[in-house]
Predict the structure of Luciferase-like domain-containing protein.
Amino acid sequence: MKFGIAIPNCHGDYADIHLAAEVAHEAEEAGWDGFFVWDHIGDKWGDEVLDPWIMLTAAAMRTQRVKLGTMVTPVTRRRPWKLAREVATLDQLSNGRMILGVGSGGGVEYVNYHEPGEPKTYGERMDEALEILSLLWSGERISYEGKYYQIDNVRHLPRPVQQPRVPIWVGGVWPNQKPMRRAARWDGVCPIGKDVNMTGQMTPEQAHACFSYVTAQQTAEQAAQPFTKVQWGILEGKDRGHDAALVSAYEEVGTNWWIENLSWERGTLQELRPYIQQGPPR
C-alpha cells in the first residue's frame, strides 16, 4: 500500500504557498509516498486560491522522493497542449514523479468564467484531451482531428521522464459507470462515493464493487499492466492500530493507494501539520 495526502489549493491557510511547500517537505520526511493538490481556479469555497502547478513546482523543489500530482484536474477547463507542457515540465523537474489525476469538472468555476461547452459534452471532450496528452508526451510529430480539438503538425520536446507517459488516474463519482469505463483505459481510478462529504469515505464494499467494475471493463492486455486503485480516505490519526486495521480492510478489496483527504473540514493546514508529521500507519 502506498500512502499520500491531498490538500486543497484554496481556502484559508491552504492558500499559503510557503506553508504548502513546507508541508510537502514534512510529508516526505514523515514517510508519505505522495503529495497531491486540488485543482480549482475559483470556486464556492472562497476567493483565496493558489495555482496548483505553482504549488507542485514549489513542492518539487522541496522534495526528492514523493509522487506529486493533482486530485483532480478538470481537463475540459484546460487547453490540452498547455496542460501537456505543464505536466511534462514538472515531470522533468521532479525527475519522473508526476501523476495527473483527471476529472470532467463543472460547477461555478465553469459558469462564472464562461468556459465553452455544455456539461453533457465534458466526457467526450476529456476523452479527446487525454488522447492528445498521450500523443504529445510521445515526443513524435503529430496531427489530430477531433470533434472538439485539432492539432496540425506539432511536436513536444522534451518528453516526460516517465514513459510511455505520465500516469493518468481518472476520478469519478461511483456508482456512475461512464467515468469508471474511462478509468479502465488509463493508469488508475480514484473514485469518490455519491453523496460522500469531505469527512466521509466509501466503504470497503463500495470500493470493491467499483474496482471490480473497472477491472471488468479492461482487456486482458490492459489488466496485465500496473493499475492504481485509490481510496480517497479518512484516518483518525489517534490510534495507529485502528488506522492500520482500517487500511488493511481496503487493501483486501484491491486498494493500492490510500490518499488521505485533508481539508478545512478537518482543520486548518497549520492544525493538521502534527497529523501529517506522524506519517502513515504502515
Summary: Strands lie at 2-7, 34-37, 67-74, 98-103, 142-145, 150-154, 168-174, 188-193, 228-233, 257-261. The two ends are 8 Å apart (CA to CA). The CA atoms of residues 78 and 129 lie 9 Å apart. The chain has ten helices and ten strands.
